[in-house]
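Batch manifest, entry 17 of 40.
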Amino acid sequence: MSRRTRSSASLKSLVKKSNEVETKLARQVLVQSSPEPAALLASAVLCSSLKRAGHLFHFSVSPPLLDTDVVNELKEQHDKKSLLFVGVYLHGKKRLKKGTGYPLFIGGSCESEQAGELQIGDTDTTAVSSYAFASALLKVEDHELGLAAAGALLEEGFEDVKTKANQEIIEAASQAKLIEERKGIRLVGVDRLQLSQVLFSSTRPYLHGLSGNRASCDEALSEAEIPSTKFRSPVSELTTKEREKLVRSLVSRTDSTFLGKDFVLVNEGSHSPLRSVFETGAMLETAWSMHDFGTAFSVLLGDRGSSLRDLLDSQSSHNEEVVSIIGSLRSALKTDDKISSHTDLDSQKDSVLTDVGRIIFEQSLASNEANIISLSNKTNTEITWRDHEITSSLVLRKLSGGEHAPTTTSHRSVRFPRLAEEDAKRIMDDILNLKGRK
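Output type: structure tokens
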């Protein structure tokens, strides 16, 4: 289940398909989303529109891969409700049961020809498809347009959006002055947190020489001639000249992955983490690794109170533990040594396994020949791989029905109850053998 040929669908054609598909929304709607960030944003578009139209919705996150048998079971359990599946990959060619109405699939991918008739959009257009569906059958406002544009950007990346429908939704949000392009420093919390803390706790990207090293962070700020009174201020409070000096200082100490294009949602407050599309994506990726979907989704739906505080606190603690573990792993390595393909970590938090595995590959801490690694703590084992073409959905399909049942934690990692090393090695071989498969 790799990505298909890039969609040529337009926003207009997605709206047309939404009007044509056989559906009548019940008062109660079950929304089942893939854990992928763009699918969560797409689900927020739907749930926000459903609420405004007077529907009652229940939201939950499912594995990114679902079997037709599972969908039919859900349909039987919730026969009086409408079922919307967002961003999922539907596996199997059995017929879907209708009951009081067929389930619908927003984005994602379907193997069954019958399910394809009930699908709006595809893997490249999940967010914009949710907006098209909501605009056709419900009512959309600026909030949903902004979320859909953000989701489209996360699906394709910020540099070169090629899918027509995604181009159109981003342009519509831009024309409505809901979204603006921005270039410069691209780090989580850069507009709302203390400068020194942003550098110290950065995991997306991990800043070699800075992340986890407070003294080095302060030295970088001093070298940029940032007044010490501004060390505890966000970047937004720096002058243009101070920002330029800061960039030069950081580039001299680490790689330039912290620079790039971003987009801001104009209607979000200046200190909101959802103002930056980049930061929204990072927040949802971390929520995936933590399986903290409920809190994250409440924030997407507009909770800027307790849910937002809880989310920011838990993710801040998560990031600090990740950089601490990476620092310890680096310190334990001798010159030219690399991290073993099977490594035990001294951490109680399962969620750190995901980001530690990702950073090990990004920072070349594993050997060039190691295309997959397993990391374990006392309770779980996480397997992470390099190849972007091997998706977590493809891995779920390969391993379904096996002795060890995984859960996804990112696009390129899965988690198991702690595995014996020989079991981990066998599963790792199975995953690598998926290269080139669809």
